[in-house]
Task: structure prediction
Amino acid sequence: MPSEQVWSKLQELLDDGLKSIGSAADENALVALQKRFFGKKGEVQAYMQHMKELTPDERPKLGALVNQVRDKLEARFVEAQKHLEEAKMLADLKHRRVDLSLPGRLPMRGAEHPLQKTQREIEDIFLSMGFEIARGPQSEWDYFNFEALNFPEDHPARDMQDTLMLENGSLLRTHTSPVQVRTMLCYEPPIRIIAPGTVYRRDDDVTHSPVFHQIEGLHIEKGLNLTHLRGILQLFAQSLFGKNTKIRLRPSFFPFTEPSVEVDIACIFCGQKGCRLCKQTGWIEILGAGMVDPNVLREGHIDPEVWSGWAFGVGIERVAMLLHGISDIRLFFESDLRFLGQFRR
Ligand code: DAH
Result:
């Protein structure tokens, strides 16, 4: 082929290529055109075959021209690709209407369970006063749950009606007080512990659950008396219910303390004017406490002539119900997210 013809064919190829690439209808058509023009066996490369038909001084010109044609076609190719993508996006947007007034989708967020939260708050108060956390088993021996705590053989709390017995002769602990004696047997005094944990009783109504939680407190040191107990519990009540919270001690009875008291806080709902929640008395009972009975210290191998101690036991559900104004204990155990979600921090 004479050189003039080669040049004009090349020009034709360029014109044709620019036109077909520019008017490619879709992605597939573009891919086909890419193969047709740019592949190793593509039409552009094919022009190099004419090299041998040219004179030596024309040859470099062919190389340069073929490169130019390829560059121009490639540029058009990139342009066409961009065009197609834009058109596709626009068409897409037309079909998919976006409603900007819809509420966003929030990720699910967990919340600390109100009992866990209350337990942690009580723990923090006592940890800050130098108490440590102790634990004991939930299946307990009669000895630790009753006998070592000075319960007489025929005490009503031992009644099967309250206590859930296990087949191996042990029982589900009815309070966290057994951790007192277990701790005394493991550690030398002075002792300052709190013992949070699950306890069980055959009891079931709006304020009682067969499974509930307590925190036991035990302080053993030389020369302790009821005023130490009162001071710490005052601080405890104020940290939990507000710094103006008043407490009072009422005489009571527990087998493992002598003297025993019940501790009330001034009603946080009515400011002591008298309401349904404080039964018009202005006071709400929050826990039991007392000076550790010498018999209990002896069971823990601690000499009551040298050491004295005070103890208390508080119900976590009861405190949480007071703190958050909850009237039905069963809400804690129903796993209803509408209830639990309210305790998100
Ligand atoms: N264990 C008692 C109960 O479950 C609560 C209690 C009262 C614990 C007085 C004590 C205490 O440590 O001193 O009802």
Q: What stands out?
A: The chain has a mean pLDDT of 92. The longest strand covers residues 211-221.
